[in-house]
Amino acid sequence: MNIRSLNRQYILGVGVDNICKDTALSAVEYFIKHRQAGNAKKIFFINVHTIHLARKDPDFKLTINNADLALPDGSGLKIAGSIFSHPIKENLNGTDFTPTILRLAELNKWKVYLLGSKENILRECINNIEQDYPRLQIAGFHSGYFSKEEIHLLLQKINEASPDILLVGMGSPTQEDFIYKYSNHLNAALCFAVGGLFDFLSGDKKRAPVFIRKAGFEWAFRFFSDPKTKWNRIFVEIPSFLTLIFIARLFPNLLHPVTERKPIYR
Question: What is the mean pLDDT of residues 8-20?
């Protein structure tokens, strides 16, 4: 087959694969078809919060920029892309994109393992998944609360299940760090860092109505639903990000929206 490539553009030094949903799904299918033990592919969702953390922590930036697929998530990236004449093709946030992956997994008989959240939320999440995707193979699950001493047994448990897809929902940067550190020790095709997905699928947290999501204001809905947790993101991280973007537009050396060619399948 021909090796297809994509444009990875950098926003404040953080790589984002500016691709559409169909291309991302094709990449997922390819990764699973060509899975290699000890070489789980890393798929991250990049939003303003991710970039904020990466700017504060060079090690985390390295982790993010080593993703095999870095999907654009949120209105902030859309604004940045427009300002630098590199429009984001599609908002591929994890809460919308991952259910599509679950449907694809059901159709293709891929096995899925869930790691993260509290056990009661995770169990409710799985109950709802089994109702929505009755033929999906759940290979196993484990809460996101474990000690360093338990990691070896956790990896062993995951590898015995041999999932095609490992969903890791432990919040940033913990989930990305876990995937980056242990991807070469996992008998899985790929790992998704899915943030609070399990909370939404379990019904523990509600999503914004569709019309609010389409208008790009889901961030506002999440803030009013949980102002204490989201205060810093809305009133510190987003204004800081937009300020830096506008400064970088005036002084281009501060931001390099240079696009490099990179193989999507490797």
Answer: 92
Q: Report helix angle 75-83 to 48-56, nearest 10.
A: 80
The pTM for the full model equals: 0.88
- Tokens at residue 100, please? 């599509």
DSSP 141-184: EE-S---GGGHHHHHHHHHHH--SEEEEES-TTHHHHHHHHHGG
Please state whether beta strands 5-11 and 259-263 pair in parallel, antiparallel, or not at all (unpaired): antiparallel
Closest of 242, 259, 218, 215 to residue 83, by C-alpha: 242
DSSP 236: I
Model confidence pLDDT, tens digit, residues 103-157: 999 999 999 999 999 999 999 999 999 999 999 999 999 999 999 899 999 999 9
DSSP string, 253-265: GG----EEEEES-
Cβ neighbour number for residue 125 with a 10 Å cutoff: 24
Eight-class DSSP state of 109 = T
How far is it between the farthest Cα atoms of the chain? 53
Query: Burial code of 184-201, b = ≥16 C-beta within 10 A, e = fewer?
Result: ebbbbbbbbbbbbbbbbb
More confident residue, 213 or 265: 213
d(CA 146, CA 170): 11
Strands 165-169 and 190-193: parallel
For the chain, the structural domain boundaries read: 14-209+255-263
The residue behind tokens 């033929």 is 135
Task: Please list, in sequence order, all residues whose beta carbon lies within 8 angstroms of the beta carbon of residue 219, skipping any fewer than 6 positions away.
Answer: 74, 75, 230, 233, 234, 238
The crossing angle, in degrees rounded to 10, of helices 94-108 and 119-132 is 60
Q: Which amino acid is at 87?
A: P
